[in-house]
Amino acid sequence: MCASVRRIDTSEQLIEDFLSRRVFAIVGATRKKEKYGYRIFRILKDAGYKVYPVNPKYDEIEGERCYASLSELPEKPDVVDIVVPPDVTEIIVREAHELGINRIWMQPGSESASAIKFCEDNGMLVLHDVCVMEESLKQRQRR
Q1: pLDDT tens track of the chain, all 143 residues?
Q2: Most exposed residue of 50, 68, 69, 143, measured as fewest CB within 10 angstroms of its CB?
Q3: Within a domain: residue 6?
Q4: How far is the C-alpha of 6 from the C-alpha of 30, rounded, in Å?
Q5: For residue 24, with 0-12 CB atoms within 10 Å meaning exposed, 13-18 middle and 19 or more buried, which class applies?
Q6: Which domain holds residue 97?
Q7: Is residue 4 included in any domain, yes or no?
Q8: Residues 105 and 80: beta-carbon distance below 8 Å
Q9: Position 91 in a domain
Q10: What's the pTM value of the predicted model, to 2 decimals?
Q11: Bridge partners, residue 50, by sequence
């Protein structure tokens, strides 16, 4: 999903802006270590971000409370990183908009034209076709 993604509609400035934020919600976080929802959760935590896992299937992931939805989070995240199928992404972006969250990162494979258009039409900043893991690791290597 994250390997060799194409770079379309992304901007280095926008990526830098997103990665400069410190609180992420990972929608689709999982305990399954081979899945991107786990790997993204782990990499961002290891990089020093405050990360809220969001997945209604779990009560916790690695000792961190896991939330069923964005509306249950104890604080508004700076960025919502989405690692779910496109039809679920369309629901998540609407919930984020209702909560006033305006930075959405759709992992490769989670994006849909409808969800991207919704974000753009509603003044939300959206990244897609680029992997947060790769960009976070690049940023750490530059330091």
Answers
A1: 454 333 334 588 999 999 999 999 999 999 999 999 999 999 999 999 999 999 999 999 999 999 999 999 999 999 999 999 999 999 999 999 999 999 999 999 999 999 999 999 999 999 998 999 999 888 777 76
A2: 143
A3: no
A4: 25
A5: buried
A6: 12-138
A7: no
A8: yes
A9: yes
A10: 0.90
A11: 23
Give the CA distances from residue 95 to residues 6, 64, 80, 118, 141, in Å, rounded to whole numbers and listed in that order: 27, 22, 11, 11, 34
In the block, tokens 């802006």 appear at 17
CA dist., res. 79 & res. 74, Å (int): 14
Residue 13: which residues within 8 A CB-CB, separation 6 or more?
none
Angle subtended by helix axes 132-142 and 12-20, to nearest 10: 80
Question: In sequence order, what are the residues at sequence separation of 6 or more whose Cβ sits closer than 8 angstroms to the Cβ of residue 33?
Answer: 39
- Specify the residue for token string 């270590």: 33
Is the alpha carbon torsion for 42, 44, 46, 51 positive or negative? negative
| Number of domain units in the chain | 1
What CATH number should be reported for the domain holding residue 134? 3.40.50.720
Helix axis angle for 132-142 and 36-46, nearest 10°, is 20
Q: Is the dihedral of CA 39, 53, 20, 132 positive or negative?
A: positive
Residue closest to 14 by CA, chosen among 132, 126, 133, 129: 126
